[in-house]
Design a protein that fits this description.
The chain is of the alpha/beta class and 240 residues long. It has a single domain, classed as Alpha/Beta hydrolase fold, catalytic domain (Rossmann fold), CATH 3.40.50. 33% of the residues lie in helices and 23% in strands. Helix 1 links the parallel strand 3 and strand 4. Helix 3 packs across helix 4. It is globular and about 40 Å long. The two termini are 22 Å apart. The relative contact order is 0.14.
Length: 240
């Protein structure tokens, strides 16, 4: 499936936004899709899982924007550097810019945009929902580090649960270590305390990245497809 790239400036740094537009008239509901870090940090074009995920959402009728949130560093820079220097304040700006790019597309409906992310992007999707009330839905796939602060002067993302205004769905493997089940329990409690409408699905026999079809050790086809059906039903209810 073809995509096109728009480039926007975020604090004088150029950020690529990969756009997947569905067939049909529209306006269509939209999704800002947040990358995982292992491959994604070198560019969206190198991230086969994220590209395939964007294509599947697009085939389901969603306009999809994938922002390259690691534009602050050279693509060739080491992943560990990007992990260590990652900043929520920068990422908040990235996600708002990506929302704006998607919202102004002729085939997208700015009032029906959700945010979805896997792994590192799962944490980022939580952050996006907590820092931009325009999002109408949020889906998190095995996002770790939600209890950690990232960047100078920023609170742990879990403390921002009170700012989330959209319904949220989460998918987690019970064999995961980042986040482990105890952390997922904490996510659940934080959202409940904040009065956020949410539902979590947890899978026995699955660990981190159970939707990563390019990783035979981690991929769990049955859990992955069950999660796909559930997230599409959720987004269909909340966005369509």
């Amino acid at each position: 499936m073809a995509y096109r790239i728009e480039t926007v400036k975020v604090k004088d740094s150029a950020m690529e936004v990969f756009l997947f537009m569905p067939a049909g008239k529209g306006p269509q509901a939209g999704i800002v899709l947040c990358q995982h870090i292992p491959v994604g940090h070198t560019g969206v074009e190198n991230d086969t899982v994220t590209l395939a995920t964007a294509e599947r959402y697009c085939a389901a009728g969603y306009a999809v924007a994938v922002p390259f949130i690691f534009h602050w560093w050279p693509k060739a820079a080491e992943m560990q550097l990007k992990r260590d220097e990652f900043r929520d304040d920068w990422t908040e700006l990235d996600l708002k810019a990506a929302f704006d790019v998607l919202a102004r597309q002729p085939g997208a409906d700015a009032k029906r945009i959700g945010i979805v992310g896997h792994c590192w992007g799962g944490r980022v999707s939580w952050l996006g929902a907590a820092t931009d009330t325009r999002y109408a839905a949020c889906a998190i796939f095995y996002g770790g580090r939600v209890k950690l602060a990232m960047g100078p002067g920023t609170p742990p993302a879990i403390e921002l649960a009170k700012n989330i205004r959209c319904p949220l769905i989460g998918f987690f493997g019970n064999d995961d270590t980042n986040p482990p089940p105890a952390d997922v329990d904490d996510y659940d409690r934080a959202l409940a305390a904040a009065g956020v409408e949410h539902v979590f699905h947890r899978y026995d026999g699955a660990g981190h990245a159970f939707q990563s079809f390019n990783n035979p050790e981690r991929y769990r086809p049955e859990a992955s497809e069950d999660a796909w059906q559930k997230v599409l039903a959720f987004l269909g209810e909340k966005l369509k």
